[in-house]
């Protein structure tokens, strides 16, 4: 059966190398754009997803970006510690609605152990896959990836290491027990183990202050942050405090107050992630520019291929007219050829782009652990297809007009 | 039926060529003779609606094609006319079969594989059905062109120098096939040529003055 598609395809196939190069060139440009697009989208989504209801992170003075990376994304080291009693003071501030403590510093097989409370896991709507939530000190709950990759099961006895690396000093004599495993959330908590702040203290007190006497006095005036100790403890420290504002005023006043009046620093996740985007954005812009150059060259090349073929094609065009094809049919056929090339290019590009992302998630452990998916398609990719359609029209418009104008008498009489 | 009345055509900046009136009955064969430059191609293209803006009337099969709009003429051409040219007239990118199917496709008629086989068989080309155009000899290419011209069962077939590029043997074969296929389909046939070898084959002849 002959139809527009077989006709166009036959012409493209008649010049395989030409067609292949044009499609490949365009495909490469579009692949780069696709990778950037999907990366960017998922990166932004992930970041938004992980920031959740956290308005402010309060920690030791240092780099604010580091504090955010450490306390929200769990990819950097803490800037230091803050005193529990100072954190309690802050929690009482009228601008603060709620706080969640984080005590960091230990890890299990490279997965960070977070001393906190259930408010933190609630923030991410974490659910138990099996087992039960941690309650007492030395009980831990493992995130889904920790369970999967470090093979942690309910009932396992775990020995933590100091720091994040697998080679850190092991706290051999302090065994924790895994009481539960979380369902996968595709957020940062999949890569964490959760326990009480007290667990982190216990492990570290043993390690750092061997002479510390364990006075098992009952808690009379529980701390609002860590209820297992008395409020106003001037020795105990935590890494950071995640703060939820009571009102919009807090966004202006609270950071200023903390940074100026206390030994702590306040960092805004929204502000710091925006800063991070703008840093990464420069690299992305360079790549994007490169992609546009590729696309421009391929468009030029498609145009030239069609335009140059017109001379040898004029007999074909005239013959088609003699067989009853109208001028507009020749016009459409020529356009279709350009569009076919750009569409193939963009489909190839989208496929290559996602292919690269699939390889990325396979090879890079972090890829799969961050819940990054290569199989997600965005509406912007439909725009790429639509754009390539338009590009095809632009590339083939002039040749198509020439085809439309073919003087059949002159060609056939020649 | 093909008829012209007081047809004149003037190329830009040149003296008008005046064509004598004539009338061919349906199924009649006619040879258009004349020296090179006498206007054979011009007349043939006027008859086939490939060239327009002439003076006079051209009636084909009860239609005055000079009165048709451009797209109606394209349509008419596809449905009622078949063309055979001297050379350069098969679509290079397509196979023999696809070249034949282009005729019904462009004329918006049903495409039939049986009809392709039938026509190819008639022209002794069945074994070349899936061949590429560039693999064909001159004689074969010309026979494919005839096959394509007749596949839609046109009322009139116009052939412009169909044998001029062929050696005696191929000329004989191609012209015989053209004439016999046209007769079988009761198509009117107009052959424009300066090829003296065809003179003996078609009795009705018109000579254009140089
Ligand atoms: N496109 C054209 N422009 C101007 N003159 C033309 C054109 N085509 C043909 N002619 C002239 O018209 C005359 C008839 O040409 P043509 O019909 O091709 O004759 P033939 O087919 O008998 O050789 C010739 O004198 C030729 O020079
Ligand atoms: Mg001629």
Describe the structure.
The complex is a heterodimer of chains A (414) and B (210). By secondary structure, chain A is α+β, with helices and mostly antiparallel strands. Chain A is 56% helix and 17% strand. Chain A has helices spanning 4-14, 16-51, 64-73, 84-91, 118-123, 144-149, 197-208, 249-261, 269-322, 327-363, 365-369, 379-404, 408-413; strands at 56-60, 82-83, 96-108, 111-116, 128-131, 139-142, 157-162, 170-182, 192-196, 237-238, 240-245, 264-267. In chain A, strands 3-4-9-6-8-7 form a six-stranded mixed barrel. In chain A, helix 2 runs antiparallel to helix 9 (269-322), helix 3 crosses helix 9 (269-322) and helix 9 packs antiparallel against helix 10 (327-363). Chain A is elongated and about 110 Å long. Chain B is an alpha/beta fold and 210 residues long. Chain B has one domain: P-loop containing nucleotide triphosphate hydrolases (Rossmann fold). Helix content of chain B is 34%, strand content 21%. Chain B has helices spanning 40-47, 70-80, 96-107, 113-122, 138-150, 168-184, and strands at 2-9, 17-19, 22-24, 29-33, 55-60, 63-64, 81-84, 156-160, 188-192, 205-207. Chain B is globular and about 50 Å long. Bound molecules: adenosine-5'-diphosphate (ADP) and magnesium ion.
What is the gist of this entry?
Chain A is built from 13 helices and twelve strands.
Task: Please tag this protein with its features.
heterodimer, A: 414 residues, alpha+beta, two-stranded antiparallel ribbon, 56% helix, 17% strand, B: 210 residues, Rossmann fold, five-stranded antiparallel sheet, five-stranded parallel sheet, 6 helices, binds adenosine-5'-diphosphate
Number of strands of chain B: 10
The chain pair forming the largest interface, with residue counts per chain, is:
A-B, 27 and 34 residues
Biggest sheet strand line-up of chain A:
3-4-9-6-8-7
User: Count of DSSP helices of chain A?
Assistant: 13
Class by alpha and beta content of chain B: alpha/beta
Any idea how many domains of chain A? 2
Q: How does CATH name the architecture of chain B? A: 3-Layer(aba) Sandwich
Q: Which small compounds were modeled alongside the protein?
A: adenosine-5'-diphosphate, magnesium ion
Total count of strands of chain A: 12
Strand content of chain B: 15-25%
Q: What is the H/E order of chain B?
A: EEEEHEEHEHHHEHEE
Topology-level CATH name of chain B: Rossmann fold
Radius of gyration of chain B (Å):
17 Å
Poorly predicted ranges of chain A (pLDDT <50, ≥5 residues)?
A: none
Shape by Cα distribution of chain A: elongated
Task: Summarize the main sheet of chain A.
Answer: 6 strands, mixed, barrel
């Amino acid at each position: 059966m002959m139809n527009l598609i077989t006709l166009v395809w036959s012409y493209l196939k008649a010049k395989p190398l030409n067609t292949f190069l044009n499609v490949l060139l365009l495909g490469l440009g579009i692949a780069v754009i696709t990778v950037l697009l999907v990366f960017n989208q998922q990166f932004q989504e992930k970041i938004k997803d992980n920031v959740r209801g956290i308005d402010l992170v309060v920690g030791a003075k240092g780099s604010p970006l580091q504090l955010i990376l450490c306390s929200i994304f769990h990819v950097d080291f803490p800037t230091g510690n803050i005193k529990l009693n100072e954190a309690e003071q802050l929690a009482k501030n009228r601008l603060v609605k709620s706080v969640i403590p984080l005590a960091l510093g230990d890890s299990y097989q490279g997965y960070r152990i977070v001393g906190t409370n259930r408010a933190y896991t609630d923030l991410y709507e974490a659910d138990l896959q099996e087992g039960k939530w941690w309650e007492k000190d030395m009980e831990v709950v493992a995130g889904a990836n920790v369970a999967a990759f470090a093979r942690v099961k309910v009932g396992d006895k775990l020995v933590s290491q100091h720091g994040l690396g697998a080679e850190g000093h092991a706290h051999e004599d302090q065994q924790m027990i895994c009481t539960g495993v979380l369902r996968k959330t595709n957020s940062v908590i999949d890569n964490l183990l959760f326990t009480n702040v007290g667990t982190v203290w216990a492990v570290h007190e043993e390690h750092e202050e061997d002479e510390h006497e364990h006075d098992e006095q009952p808690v009379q005036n529980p701390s609002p942050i860590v209820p297992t100790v008395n409020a106003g403890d001037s020795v105990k420290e935590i890494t950071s405090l995640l703060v939820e504002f009571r009102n919009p005023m807090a966004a202006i006043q609270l950071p200023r107050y903390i940074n100026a009046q206390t030994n702590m620093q306040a960092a805004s996740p929204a502000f710091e992630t925006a800063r991070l985007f703008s840093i990464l954005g420069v690299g992305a812009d360079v790549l994007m520019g490169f992609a546009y150059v590729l696309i421009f060259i391929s468009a030029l090349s498609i145009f030239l291929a069609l335009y140059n073929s017109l001379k040898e094609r004029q007999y074909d065009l005239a013959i088609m007219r003699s067989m009853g094809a109208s001028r507009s049919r020749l016009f459409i056929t020529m356009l279709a050829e350009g569009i076919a090339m750009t569409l193939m290019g963009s489909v190839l590009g989208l496929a290559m782009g996602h292919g690269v992302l699939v390889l990325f998630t396979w090879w890079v452990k972090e890829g799969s652990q961050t819940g990054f998916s290569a199989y997600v398609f965005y509406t912007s990719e439909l725009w790429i297809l639509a754009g390539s359609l338009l590009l095809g029209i632009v590339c083939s418009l002039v040749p198509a007009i020439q085809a439309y104008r073919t003087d059949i008498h002159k060609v056939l009489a020649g | 039926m093909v008829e012209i009345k007081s047809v004149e055509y003037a190329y830009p900046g040149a003296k008008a060529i005046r064509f004598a009136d004539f009338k061919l009955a349906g199924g009649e064969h006619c040879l258009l003779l004349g020296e090179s430059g006498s206007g054979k191609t011009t007349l043939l293209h006027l008859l086939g609606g490939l060239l327009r803006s002439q003076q006079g009337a051209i009636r084909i099969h009860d239609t005055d094609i000079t009165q048709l709009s451009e797209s109606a003429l394209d349509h008419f051409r596809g449905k009622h006319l078949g063309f055979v040219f001297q050379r350069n007239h098969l679509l290079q990118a397509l196979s023999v079969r696809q070249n034949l199917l282009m005729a019904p496709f462009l004329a918006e008629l049903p495409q039939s594989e049986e009809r392709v086989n039938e026509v190819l068989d008639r022209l002794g080309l069945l074994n070349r059905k899936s061949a590429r155009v560039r693999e064909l000899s001159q004689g074969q290419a010309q026979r494919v062109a005839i096959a394509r011209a007749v596949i839609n069962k046109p009322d009139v077939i116009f052939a412009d120098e169909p044998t001029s590029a062929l050696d005696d043997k191929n000329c004989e074969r191609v012209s015989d096939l053209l004439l016999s296929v046209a007769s079988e389909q009761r198509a009117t046939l107009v052959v424009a040529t300066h090829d003296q070898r065809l003179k003996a084959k078609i009795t009705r002849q018109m000579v254009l003055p140089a």
